[in-house]
Write a structure and sequence with these properties.
Number of strands: 19
Number of domains: 2
Largest sheet: 7 strands, mixed
Oligomer: single chain
Length: 431
C-alpha cells in the first residue's frame, strides 16, 4: 500500500448519509476524512430567522423508523413533540375545509366519508399494521396508485388515502412509487412521528460532534472532483486543493448522477423517478386557526410545527405549506398562499417567510415492479472498496430513514474493507 495512504475511510459528501458514514467509521476507530460537497447537513440544515427556526420544508422523524435507531446507536439525543391531531381536508376547487379521519375516533366523526368508505377505511386501519413478509414482496410489483385503487373506496375515499400517502412519502405522483414503500411508510406513520426541538439542525450538529470526537477530519467546502482506483487496491481522490489517498471510499454525494460522475466504473442502475416539492416556510406572530390541512383534490399540505416543537418565539408559530411535485414558481407560490389563507393566515401574521421553489426531496423513489429491494445496494458501485449512500440507496427506509440506514451500512462496510486491506498488506510485508 502507498505510504501516503493514511486515510482508512474517505467520505465524499456531508449530507445526512455522509455524516452518518463518517460518524460510524470514526467511532469504529478508523482514520476518517470527510469532503464536503456542500454545506454540512444538506437538506437537513435549519436556518434561524427573526428567532424562528426553519427547516427546509416540513421534516418529521419517525419514532419507530430505522433512522431513529441509527441515531440512538450513535448516542445522539433529540427531543420533540408529535403533530397536532386535528387534520382538515382541503379542496382547492371550493376552498372547503373538513375534518379528516386519521384514527378510529376521528373516522366516526368525519363527514368527508360515507358509510361504505368508513367501513373500508376502518378495515385498512386494522390490517395495515399487520402487513409484512411475502405481502410486501407482492406489493413491490404495483404502484401506490394501483394499491389505493384496489381498496374498494369511492373517489372521495381514495382521495383521503392518497392525501395521507403523499404526506408519508413526499411523492406527488403516486403512480411512480411502489406500494411496498408506501405501506411501510404508513405503518411507521401510525406508530407516530415527532417534530424536533431546534429543528433538524440538532441532528446535523450531533452527527458532526460524534464524527469529530472519533477524530474525523472535515475538509470544508472541498468538493471531490475525481476518484481513481490504484493498482495496490487503494484509491486516489482529487479535490481542487489536494490529492488524497484512502483505503476505502464512501460516496454520499447526493444524487445518483453525482455518484456516477465519481465512480471509476459507473454502473447502470435502474432507478425510479425523483420526488420534488415547492414549499413556503412561514414564521408567524400567532398560531393559525387551522393547524394541519391535507389537500384532497391537489397534492398540498399545511402543517404547524411550532408551538408543538420549540422552533418559535413565545406566542409565535412555524408553519410549512408544501406542494408535492414542483411546477412553475409563480403558480406554486400562489397555490400555497391560497391554502395558507384558507387556514387563517394573513400577510399581517407573517414575520418571516421563505419560498423554496423546487426542492429535491428524494433523488429516486422505489419503482413499481422492483420496490425497496430494487434500489442499488451500498456496494453496487462496480469497484470493490467503494460504497454509496443516500436516500435512493439500500432496501431499507424512505427519505431521511434511507439516508441514515445506508450511511450507517456504508460506513461499517468501508471500515471492514479498510481493515482487510491493512491486514493483507501486513501479511505481504511479513512474507
Amino acid at each position: 500500500m502507498d505510504p501516503r495512504c493514511d486515510i482508512e475511510v474517505l467520505v465524499v459528501g456531508a449530507g445526512l448519509a455522509g455524516l452518518v458514514a463518517a460518524a460510524v467509521a470514526a467511532r469504529d476507530g478508523a482514520s476518517v476524512v470527510l469532503c464536503e460537497v456542500r454545506a454540512a447537513g444538506g437538506r437537513a440544515r435549519s436556518d434561524t430567522r427573526e428567532g424562528f427556526v426553519l427547516n427546509q420544508g416540513p421534516h418529521a422523524l419517525y419514532r419507530a423508523g430505522v433512522g431513529s435507531k441509527v441515531l440512538s446507536r450513535l448516542g445522539i439525543d433529540f427531543t420533540g413533540s408529535p403533530p397536532h391531531r386535528a387534520v382538515s381536508g382541503y379542496k382547492e376547487a371550493t376552498g372547503e375545509l373538513a375534518r379528516l379521519p386519521t384514527s378510529a375516533g376521528s373516522l366516526l366523526r368525519t363527514r368527508v366519508l360515507g358509510l361504505s368508505d368508513k367501513v373500508h377505511f376502518a378495515r385498512l386501519l386494522s390490517t395495515l399494521p399487520k402487513r409484512e413478509g411475502h405481502s410486501f414482496a407482492e406489493m413491490a410489483e404495483m404502484s401506490a396508485a394501483e394499491w389505493i385503487a384496489s381498496l374498494g373506496l369511492s373517489s372521495r375515499g381514495a382521495g383521503v388515502v392518497s392525501a395521507l400517502t403523499r404526506v408519508a412519502t413526499y411523492a406527488g405522483h403516486l403512480e411512480l412509487v411502489s406500494a411496498d414503500a408506501v405501506v411501510a411508510q404508513l405503518q411507521l406513520a401510525l406508530k407516530g412521528v415527532i417534530y424536533l426541538d431546534g429543528g433538524w439542525q440538532s441532528l446535523v450538529d450531533g452527527l458532526e460532534a460524534v464524527a469529530a470526537s472519533g477524530g474525523a477530519k472535515v475538509l470544508e467546502s472541498e468538493r471531490a472532483t475525481a476518484l481513481h482506483a490504484r493498482s495496490d487496491g487503494t484509491f486516489e481522490v482529487h479535490t481542487p486543493a489536494r490529492t488524497l489517498w484512502a483505503a476505502s471510499v464512501v460516496v454520499a454525494a447526493g444524487s445518483p448522477a453525482a455518484a456516477r460522475a465519481l465512480l471509476p466504473h459507473p454502473p447502470s442502475w435502474e432507478l425510479g423517478a425523483p420526488a420534488t416539492a415547492a414549499c413556503l416556510d412561514l414564521g408567524l406572530r400567532r398560531v393559525p386557526a387551522t393547524m394541519v390541512a391535507f389537500g384532497l383534490d391537489q397534492p398540498l399540505y399545511l402543517s404547524t410545527h411550532s408551538p408543538k416543537a420549540r422552533l418559535a418565539p413565545p406566542g409565535g408559530a412555524v408553519v410549512h405549506v408544501m406542494r408535492y411535485g414542483a411546477r412553475a414558481s409563480a403558480e406554486d407560490r400562489a397555490e400555497l398562499w391560497a391554502l395558507a389563507r384558507c387556514c387563517g393566515i394573513s400577510d399581517a401574521d407573517v414575520i418571516t417567510q421563505r419560498f423554496l421553489h423546487e426542492m429535491t426531496v428524494c433523488h429516486a423513489l422505489p419503482r413499481p415492479g422492483s420496490g425497496l429491494g430494487g434500489r442499488p445496494a451500498i456496494d453496487a458501485t462496480g469497484t470493490a472498496g467503494v460504497f454509496i449512500a443516500g436516500d435512493w440507496v439500500g432496501p431499507v427506509g424512505l427519505l431521511a430513514d434511507a439516508s441514515l440506514a445506508s450511511g450507517e451500512a456504508a460506513g461499517r462496510a468501508a471500515v471492514d474493507h479498510a481493515k482487510r486491506q491493512r491486514a493483507n498488506d501486513s501479511a505481504m510485508v511479513g512474507r
